[in-house]
Amino acid sequence: MIGDARGGLDGGGLDGRRLIASRPLSGLAVAALVLSALGVTNGLTGMVGAVLGHVALWQIGKSGQSGRWAAVAAVVIGWTLTVLMFAVLVLMYQTMKDFD
Fold first, then answer.
1. From the CB of residue 87, how many other CB atoms can be counted at a distance below 10 Å?
2. Which Pfam families does this chain map to (predicted)?
3. Is 50 exceeded by the pLDDT of residue 1?
4. Cβ contact 45:39 at 8 Å
5. What is the CA radius of gyration of the chain?
6. How far, in Å, CA of 33 to CA of 55, rounded?
C-alpha cells in the first residue's frame, strides 16, 4: 500500500479508515449567536442577532454549511430577549405614568 501525505494508507487515516470531510461552519450563524447573546446587555443587538439568525438559516439551507444549531439558538435567544426588552419598557412606562 502507498501512504498519503497525512501519513495514512491510501487516503485513509492512521488506522486505515477514510477521513470524512467536515462542512464549513457558517460565520454568519456564529455572529448571529454572539449578537443575540449580547442582547442581554443591549436589547437592540438581540433583535439584530435574531434577524441574522434567520438569514444564516436561509444561507445554510442553500449552501449546506454546518452551524444550524447556532442559527436556531440565535433566533430563539434574540427574539426572546427582544420580547423581554419590550415588556420591560412597557412596564417602566406604565410605572412612570402612575407617578404623574
1. 10
2. DUF4190 (PF13828)
3. no
4. yes
5. 22
6. 12
Q: What spatial distance separates the first Cα and last Cα of the chain, rounded to whole Å?
A: 86
Residue 53 has pLDDT above 50, yes or no: yes
Instruction: Identify the CA nearest to 28 among candidates 49, 43, 44.
Output: 49
Q: What is the DSSP string of 23-82?
A: PPBPHHHHHHHHHHHGGGT-HHHHHHHHHHHHHHHHHHHHH--B-HHHHHHHHHHHHHHH
45, three cell numbers: 443587538
Distance CA 81, CA 30 (A): 17
Q: Single out the residue of 24, 6, 26 nearest to residue 16, CA to CA.
A: 6
| Residue 52, C-alpha cell as written in the block | 441574522
C-alpha cell at 70: 447556532
* Residue keyed to cell 461552519: 25
Average pLDDT score, the chain: 86
Instruction: Report the distance separating Cα 88 and Cα 8, nearest Å.
Output: 59
